[in-house]
Amino acid sequence: MTLSSIKACNSPVIVALDFNDKNKAIELVEKLNPSECRLKVGKEMFTLFGPEFVKALVEKGFDVFLDLKFHDIPATTAKACVAAASLGVWMLNVHASGGQVMMQTAKKALEENFENPPLLIGVTVLTSMDESDLAGIGVTKSAAEQVKMLATLVKQSGLDGVVCSAQEAEILRDAIGQNFELVTPGIRPEGSDKGDQKRIMTPKRAIDSGASYLVVGRPITQAENPAEVLKQINASLA
Ligand SMILES: O=c1ccn([C@@H]2O[C@H](COP(=O)(O)O)[C@@H](O)[C@H]2O)c(=O)[nH]1
């Protein structure tokens, strides 16, 4: 398959490849089609298998979300974003709590270095956290209020969207509007295991609530037939 022969992706699903075994990941990827899902590479696989693994997925024609959640001083974050973008990824992210200057500097560096820069999004509140976890780090707002506050800062910083839970999608669409990507992990098809996720939603409800993209990891990667689960999720959204 050549890159030019691959159709654009028709699905909002981003499959989170969280494996410690590259062969297992590739075995799954071989069963997937770039027109039916995007892929996410996170800290585990990037640390183990590095840029070459990411480039191999891009070469296969997949839109790749490099989920490294950069959070550092502005200059360091900007240089990390430029390095990530040089791998040809479709989307990358920083933590919104790094602040406006950090986010603006990263966005500017991408625009200055790439004709077609990848989408840059800000992580708001991790979907594994609820109000009691927020209280533990000194945040007394509700998860929804904290997400709204950080998402507003992300928008003001000129980024393309946020990572949030689908539970906040309606609130963010009302507050920020349509021209802003809402990338939502914590997606759980009916009956699937929550794992360590706390703010969850089904794929259909997430899309109906205004999510742009659905990040789905274990419900697909740990399934006996991952391609069939992906097919069912895509069908549930049609
Ligand atoms: O708030 C966040 C940000 C990122 N993630 C990542 O998404 C996937 C979710 O995987 P599941 O197996 O579907 O729970 C995982 O790679 C996380 O690192 C998130 O869950 N929440």
Automatic annotation (TrEMBL):
Q: Which domain of life is it from?
A: Bacteria
EC number(s) stated in the UniProt entry for this protein: 4.1.1.23
What pathway does this protein act in?
Answer: Pyrimidine metabolism; UMP biosynthesis via de novo pathway; UMP from orotate: step 2/2
Q: Which SMART domains match?
A: OMPdecase
Enzyme class, one word?
Answer: lyase
The residues covered by the Orotidine 5'-phosphate decarboxylase domain are: 12-233
Q: Which reaction does it catalyse?
A: orotidine 5'-phosphate + H(+) = UMP + CO2
| InterPro entries reported for this sequence | Aldolase_TIM, OMPdecase, OMPdecase_AS, OMPdecase_bac, OMPdeCOase_dom, RibuloseP-bd_barrel
| Keyword Ribosomal protein applies | no
Please list the residues that make up the active site: 69 (proton donor)
Please give the CDD domains that the UniProt record associates with this protein. Answer: OMP_decarboxylase_like (cd04725)
Keywords from UniProt, A to Z, are: Decarboxylase, Lyase, Pyrimidine biosynthesis
Residues spanning the membrane: none
List ligand-binding residues for substrate: 18, 40, 67-76, 127, 188, 197, 217-218
Q: Which Gene3D superfamilies match?
A: Aldolase class I
Single GO MF descriptor: orotidine-5'-phosphate decarboxylase activity
Quote the Pfam families the UniProt record gives.
OMPdecase (PF00215)
- Family to which the UniProt record says this protein belongs: Belongs to the OMP decarboxylase family. Type 1 subfamily.
Q: What does this protein do?
A: Catalyzes the decarboxylation of orotidine 5'-monophosphate (OMP) to uridine 5'-monophosphate (UMP).
Q: What HAMAP family does the record point to?
A: OMPdecase_type1_B
**Quaternary assembly:** Homodimer.
What is the name of this protein? Answer: Orotidine 5'-phosphate decarboxylase
Q: Which organism is it from?
A: Catenovulum adriaticum
Question: Gene that codes for this?
Answer: pyrF
